[in-house]
């Protein structure tokens, strides 16, 4: 291969820049021209494509966000959109692509390969950690540390005022962020989409102590609803007053942790190696310390299980 392209797509995740840097340096070390596609699939359709070098990727390893920008692209969901994208890829002499993102990104990559035969591998870049085939995704470690720091601050107020806080964290349909930060921050209860959440149980835990100074974590996607819904239901059904804190996009930004930088770098180098070895239509991940490949369709068809120990911890440590 003479030209390998990288793009980032879907929600940004801290560590994406370290990943881009690793791909670029890995290519340069092998005499391959690294190419950047800007704004994900939108840039592929619009031809927003340029050569990357050491200069473009200097001093970015510690930066959050993505220098290539990102987008959620509706046009790429159409055959015509993918047709235009594939033409641009060929016109630019791109022989292999690395798609860094989540399951939406991987759906697109899978179709691009199936319909146009363009060699493409995915790398897991999402704070949600919800992709089957890898223990961790790029950005997850930073996100949980950012969320934990924010919740520690909220705890100061909960303690000082004797208040109940219902804190909502991201995760779309997965409770990894909620469970990790809930355990790490000593939450009284953790509501996640993977398990049934019982409002009476939440209320019971809050009422265990005469002084209601407590933190409840609600993972986005929980069947009871948002943190705002849970707070309202606690008031309506149990006369429990609570404050709501939605951490939102602060979880996606900021300086990546060391773990995210190392994972992003390792996956970047491995993705280039895999493309050169003829791999395609698969995600490059890390499992039990080893680099793995998983067919792209399995990354969303198979559900990554939430380790059961979290449920035990969250019920024992309250
Ligand atoms: O990046 C993944 C994610 O953070 C999900 O947890 C969340 O549901 C979603 O992105 C929010 O996306 P957007 O920024 O497009 O609203």
The N- and C-terminal alpha carbons lie at a distance of 55 Å
CATH level 1 name of the largest domain: Alpha Beta
Biggest sheet strand line-up: 3-2-1-4-5-10-11
State the total count of DSSP E strands.
11
CATH architecture of the largest domain: 3-Layer(aba) Sandwich
Ligands in the model, by name, code or SMILES, are: 6-O-phosphono-beta-D-fructofuranose
Class by SSE composition: alpha/beta
Helix-strand pattern = EHEHEHEHEHEHEHEHEHEEHH
SS field, number of helical segments: 11
Kindly estimate the percentage of residues that lie in beta strands according to DSSP: 15-25%
CATH topology of the largest domain: Rossmann fold
What does this protein structure show overall?
The chain has helices spanning 16-29, 40-46, 79-91, 103-116, 140-161, 176-184, 199-206, 227-238, 258-276, 296-301, 309-316, and strands at residues 3-8, 33-37, 49-51, 96-101, 120-124, 164-169, 189-191, 214-219, 243-246, 282-287, 290-295. By secondary structure, the chain is an alpha/beta fold. The protein folds into two domains: 3-139 and 256-301, Rossmann fold; 141-252, Rossmann fold (3-Layer(aba) Sandwich). Strands 3-2-1-4-5-10-11 form a seven-stranded mixed sheet, sandwiched between helices. Strands 7-8-6-9 form a four-stranded parallel sheet, with helices on both faces. Strand 4, helix 4 and strand 5 form a beta-alpha-beta unit. The longest helix is centred in the middle third of the chain and has 22 residues, at 140-161. The protein is elongated, with a radius of gyration of 21 Å. The protein starts with a strand and ends with a helix. The mean pLDDT is 96. 6-O-phosphono-beta-D-fructofuranose binds next to loops.
